[in-house]
Amino acid sequence: MEIAHALNRIPSSYIREILAAASDKNVISLAGGLPDEQTFPIELMKPALERLSQMPEVFQYGATAGYGPLIQHLCERFALPETHTVMMATGSQQGLDLIARAYINPGDRVVMEAPSYLGAMQVFGLAQAEIVGVSQNEQGPDLAELELCFKTQTPKMFYAVPDFHNPTGVCWSLETRKQVAKLCYQYDVTLIEDAPYRELRFTGTMLPMASEFCLDKAIVLRSFSKIASPGLRLGAVSGPRELIDPMVKVKQGADLHSSVPMQALLLGLLENSGFDQHIATIRALYQGRYQALFDALDAQLPSPCRVYPVDGGMFVWVELPSCDTFALAKSLLANGVAVVPSPVFYPNPNEASSALRLNFTNAQPEELVEAVSRLAQGLKQAIV
C-alpha cells in the first residue's frame, strides 16, 4: 500500500538515529534532549500513586479536554483569564500536532526561527504547511526580518520557543517578546509559544511569556516531561476557548483522551508541598552540569569556534567555521562523543550555518569534561 504523500516529505529523525548509535557504552552522548532519570520525582508521586487504587473513576473513559480537577488546577497555576482554558495532550508534542491538524491547510505558511525545533518541523511538514524560516540573534528572532516576513508572506502562525530555545538556548529579551506580540496583532498572526524549558531557568530573572503580551492571539504549549517525567506523556495546551475548542474536536478523533490515571497522578505531584523544592533541585543540578560543559568548552575549543552562554534549558550551541557538519558528527561519534549537526534544525538544510547542538542534562560533570576533550580533539583534526 502506498504511503501518504505528506509522509514522503518527512525525513527520519537524525536525532533518533544518532541516539541509537550513541547507546554504545564507550560513547558519551551530548546528542539527545533527555532529562536525567535521577530527577524523576518518584518519591513525591508515591502518595498519589497509592491514592489511585481508591479512585476507580479515573480508570473509566474521561473527558477529551482532560481530567477536570487537573484542568482547574492548571488554569489557576497558569493564572489564565476566564476566557481561556486548558486542554491536556499526550505530551506537548501531541498538542503541537493537534494545532497543525486543527488549523493548517496544505500550503498555509508557518513561520519558525531558523534554526528551530526538529519535532515542530516534522509536524508542520506532515500538515503540508509551507515553512518560512526567520534568522535568530542573541535577543531572539530578527525583528526586522520577522516583520517583513509577516508583511509579505501572510503566514497563519509563528511557532517559537522564547525560553531557552531548542537548539540554540537563546532566551528572548523582554523587548523582543513585546515586539513579537505587537507584530502578531498588527499582521493577524497567531503566536504558538512552546515552553518546555521555561521552568529550567538556573540564573537570571524570569521574564513574562511572550504570549502574555498578545493573550487573544496566542496558543501556549507546556510540557511536564522536563520537570516530572517524559514517560508520563503529558502536556498542556492553553489559550482562548475559541482557539482550543477545535483542537479538542480533533483530539476526540485521535485518541478520545489522554490517560486519566496519569493526569490524576500529575495533579497529585503538582499539589505536593515538595514540588517547588523538586524544581529548585533540578535547576541546581543542571546549572552545575551546564557550568562544567561551558567551562570546558571555553577552555578547549579551537579559536575559530564559539560557544554561547545560556541561562537555563538543556542545550548549548557551538558555532563552527564552514564545514560538513554531518561528516564532522560522524567522525566525532567514532571518537566517542555524540552531537547533533546544525542542518537538521533548519527548514532548508542548505541554508544552515555550521554549528553543533550539545546537551548537558543527561551526563555527569566528569563525562561532560571528557566529552569536550574528545570534541576539541576531533574539531582540531577536522576543521582547524
TrEMBL record:
Gene Ontology BP annotations: alpha-amino acid metabolic process
Record keywords: Aminotransferase, Pyridoxal phosphate, Transferase
SUPFAM superfamilies in the cross-refs: PLP-dependent transferases
Spans traversing the lipid bilayer: none
Pfam families (UniProt xref): Aminotran_1_2
Keyword Transferase included in the entry's annotation: yes
Cofactor(s), names only, from the UniProt record: pyridoxal 5'-phosphate
GO MF term list: pyridoxal phosphate binding; transaminase activity
InterPro entries the record matches: Aminotransferase_I/II_large (IPR004839), Class-I_PLP-dep_aminotransf (IPR050859), PyrdxlP-dep_Trfase (IPR015424), PyrdxlP-dep_Trfase_major (IPR015421), PyrdxlP-dep_Trfase_small (IPR015422)
Organism: Vibrio agarilyticus
Domain Aminotransferase class I/classII large: start-end pairs: 27-375
The protein, known as: PLP-dependent aminotransferase family protein
